[in-house]
Design goal:
Elements (H helix, E strand, L loop, with lengths): L1 E8 L3 H13 L5 E4 L12 H5 L14 H8 L2 E3 L2 E7 L4 E6 L2 E12 L3 E3 L12 E3 L3 H14 L3 E5 L3 H12 L3 E5 L11 H13 L2 E4 L6 E5 L2 E6 L2 E5 L1 E4 L3 E3 L30 E3 L6 E2 L6 E2 L4 H15 L14 E5 L2 E7 L2 H6 L4 E9 L10 E9 L5 E8 L3 H13 L4 H4 L16 H9 L3
Parallel strand pairs: 1-2, 1-6, 2-3, 6-17, 8-15, 9-10, 9-15, 10-11
Antiparallel strand pairs: 4-5, 5-6, 7-16, 12-13, 13-14, 18-19, 20-21, 21-24, 22-23, 23-24
Helix pairs in contact: 1-7
The structure holds flavin-adenine dinucleotide.
Length: about 450
């Protein structure tokens, strides 16, 4: 039976981070990566910009290709190889490689199987020209369809982050775009102040938004598609469905691995699971929320890379390496509008029973006399008992999103509002006013 010191299941952000880090630590380890699809180590986050041709060369999204992993890093990669089962007591995995099955043993195992797009229960969702967007193949399929069919119109089902990014891609390609969202609002992860700004930006870019639309049916109709909800019919050339993801862990059901209610594998700050010598990382795993202390499912590339790195280092014997968790920082670009969130929104804090105070400002990005100064919106949320900063949202242009990283740092270090309001942020007129938008929002909240 083939044997690896470290066997990794899944070869994208988390899996390849784990394999690469383990190799850096120990050149003598045998490392094998088993990946169900044909691509490894690609940047899923760049797919919307590949589809609209901003990134002209698809290969640019592949950080390191399979051959380089094998030849330069001595990491054995097996693509089109699906792990179908794991026997934790015997320390073996069953692999199906192009229809051929076999068992492989390991010393340490990293499960980095990521997630798949959630398929909503809509009749006709499997119709021709209805696409999902989760992996590189999905991106290629959408891009090829657009190039070959030159569609005039497209519908995005789902107003979350991927829907927002794809709205920009489709409009960049001159495609008439409708966004249909089941909930009352798009961009539900953000506060209303930000949602309004996103809505305004989308409308100004001719994206039609329909909310509260519970789609019942999709029909193929004269080579086009017809979407039906609430007695309304929308015709379009193609549809992209982006309504969330689910962890790829069904093959581990009843295996004894601890998972949450959504099937995400529960890991600690060492990326360890409840089973000895088994680690997990990325979109198939939970992560600790540093404010609430809960294990949450917050699948993001930023987390997958960190958890994967720690999983690989731990598996290679570096037991001091840990990733403590996240504060929920997310960025999205909606056309020219930069949007970011970190920590808890007021509504999320309320659900946690945390009493909060919040303030927001609309400020200038640079000194008022600078010609290229743009508007920046900042909201700061604090715990009203401890006075610690626990949330923030930003939007605007000219550095709005990156400002949220300062808030994320304050949240992580449990900084109190009164310190945040006088933080020694850099100042020069072309970068910010002397009182930055972050100071301004915080000063608004300070009790004197
Ligand atoms: C369009 C898009 C834009 C995004 N933008 C951002 C962004 O701006 N910022 C951000 O932080 N995140 C973003 N993300 C999310 C980010 O891409 C993911 O969080 C990240 O790719 C997760 O990496 P992963 O390795 O955990 O999982 P995945 O990328 O899902 O990879 C897991 C791999 O495991 C393989 N696999 C599954 N089951 C098996 C099995 N049984 N055997 C073998 N192999 C298996 C799968 O085929 C897959 O290739 C975006 C995602 C998409 C789709």
């Amino acid at each position: 039976m083939k044997h690896y010191n470290i066997l990794v299941v899944g070869g994208v952000a988390a899996g390849m981070s784990a394999a690469s880090q383990a190799r850096r630590i120990d050149e003598n380890l045998s490392i094998g990566v088993f990946e169900k699809n044909e691509y490894v180590s690609y940047a899923a986050c760049g797919i919307p910009y590949m589809i609209d041709n901003e990134i002209a060369d698809r290969d640019k999204l592949i950080a390191i290709d399979k051959d380089r992993f094998i030849n330069e890093r001595n990491i054995q990669i097996f693509t089109n190889s699906e792990v179908t089962g794991i026997d934790f007591s015997k320390k073996t995995v069953s692999v199906n490689e192009n229809g051929q099955t076999g068992n492989i043993s390991y010393d340490k195992l990293v499960i980095a199987t990521g997630a798949r797009a959630f398929v909503p229960p809509i009749a006709g969702v499997e119709s021709r020209n209805v696409f999902f967007l989760k992996n590189f193949n999905d991106g290629i399929r959408i891009q090829d369809f657009i190039k070959n069919s030159l569609p005039a119109s497209g519908v995005l089902i789902g107003g979350g982050i991927i829907g927002l990014e794809m709205a920009e891609s489709l409009r960049t390609l001159g495609i008439e775009t409708i966004m249909i969202e089941k909930g009352d609002t798009i961009a539900a992860a953000f506060d209303t102040g930000i949602q309004e700004r996103i809505n305004k930006e989308l409308v100004s870019q001719d994206v039609s938004i329909r909310t509260g639309a519970d789609i019942k049916k999709i029909e193929e109709h004269n080579k086009r598609l017809r979407i039906i909800y609430d007695n309304i019919e929308v015709e379009t050339d193609f549809i992209i469905v982006a309504v969330g993801i689910r962890p790829n862990t069904e093959f581990l059901k009843d295996s004894g691995l601890s998972m949450d209610g959504k099937g995400a594998i529960i890991v600690n700050e060492k990326s360890e699971t409840n089973i000895p010598d088994v680690y997990s990382a990325g979109d198939c795993a939970t992560v600790k929320h540093l404010i609430t202390g809960e294990n949450v499912y917050m699948p993001l590339g930023s987390t997958a890379n960190k958890q994967g790195r720690v999983a690989g280092l731990q598996a290679a014997g570096i037991s001091s390496e840990i990733f403590k968790g996240v504060v929920g920082t997310q960025f999205v670009k909606v056309f020219d509008l930069e949007v970011a969130r970190t920590g808890l929104t007021e509504a999320e804090a309320d659900k946690q029973g945390i009493a909060v105070e919040a303030a927001d400002v609309e400020w200038k990005s640079r000194a008022g006399y600078c010609p290229r100064s743009r508007k920046i919106y900042v909201k700061i949320v604090i715990n009203s008992e401890t006075r610690e900063v626990i949330g923030g949202q930003t939007s605007g242009k000219d550095g709005a999103a990156l400002r949220a990283n300062v808030i994320a740092t304050a949240i992580t270090s449990k900084m109190k509002l009164e310190d945040f309001a006088y933080l020694d942020l850099g100042y020069a007129p072309p970068f910010s006013p002397v009182w930055d938008s972050l100071h301004a929002a915080a000063q608004k909240l300070v009790k004197r």
